[in-house]
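User: Please work through this fold.
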Amino acid sequence: MNRSFPVDRTCPFTLPADYAEMRSEAPAIRVSLPGGDAWLITRHAEAKALLKDTRVSTDPRTPGHPYAKLSADPPPPEVVEAEARFHAGEFVNLDPPEHGRFRGVLQSAFRRRHIEELRPVIVRLADDLVSAMIERGPQADLVRDFALPLPVLVTCAVLGVPEEERDFFASAVRRAEHPPADDPLATVTAVFEMRDRVERIVAAADQAPPDSVIAVAAGSGAFDRDELVGVVTFLLKAGYVTTNAMISLGVLTLCRHPAQLASLGADPQRWASAVDELLRFLSVTDWYTFDRVATEDITVGDDVIRAGDGIFVLGASINHDERVFARAGEFDVQRDARRHLAFGHGVHRCLGDHLAGAELEIALRTLFSRLPGLRITATDDELDLRVSGDPFGLVSLPVAWEHLS
């Protein structure tokens, strides 16, 4: 009998027991979703091969796509098509060669050299947020006051959003992610307000910095207006949602491992490798960004995934595959975790991987260096977890630090 899926994660430090069981059983496991069956890829080697396989599609309009089976009542084709038009520019859901039309234009703004040049900007933004925390402190909600606004402001800088507009986006994202209990439409309203503001900014793209995403994309002539608005809106969301989760969970994880945190203080050069280990260990996106559907028959292990079968690559399982990572269930900042697949693999590897790595390194180092005695003031049972949805994370994280005279 097939296992039921999805399985929600309910703890920041352990994965569902089913993950290890499935990984030991086979590299491909057939599971039951609310609207039908799909395959899970559970092991690192097979996942890496499938993520670069040209016989799979990531487009949700492709028949058999697993997202259509996450509900017992999937939307009709005309709704799927309408949503695709609304989300024009979200190239992550496009297959080659259309995917390459977007990525080829955008990748220059996310190259490692360009991100290195942005490090002083990221440092300044992180310092400013910590300074504001110290002024209000010595207690804070780390998600609200740092982990959420930092990636929003950094992404705005990369996109080329005018400085006078960036506080608006930080505020709108906060309202979208933490809507008032008495306003059920707050999230939708904030999302549409952000999209409207992006339309106005894109209309003035000639005023954006020449190496920014908006200037490069608009100047390429490769996109129509809807695509241009869509790609900027998508990158804005993609730029904060996962990094926010990683910053707050990273702080929580390091506070749970004080000896390893102390070793980073003694050897700051190890922060970059510690970030790789956090990405591997936490795997916050899990299967949500690794959705595929077979367009031809594909053999994985002893099983054949038939054309039209939906597939999820189980990110949190493959990054805990003992065949690649010894003592995979343990967090270890001394580990060489560079083989993790948290950013994906192949043509759909995360465009902003270098940016996310730099943000995490700077954010964590700034927090622990400037807030002495930084600690979590909630017990594990009191943590407000986002247990389902993309990505796994914390809704809030109460912290305190030693008073600075």
About this structure: The longest strand covers residues 28-33. Residues 3-400 form a domain with the Cytochrome p450 fold (CATH 1.10.630.10). The mean pLDDT is 92. The radius of gyration is 21 Å.
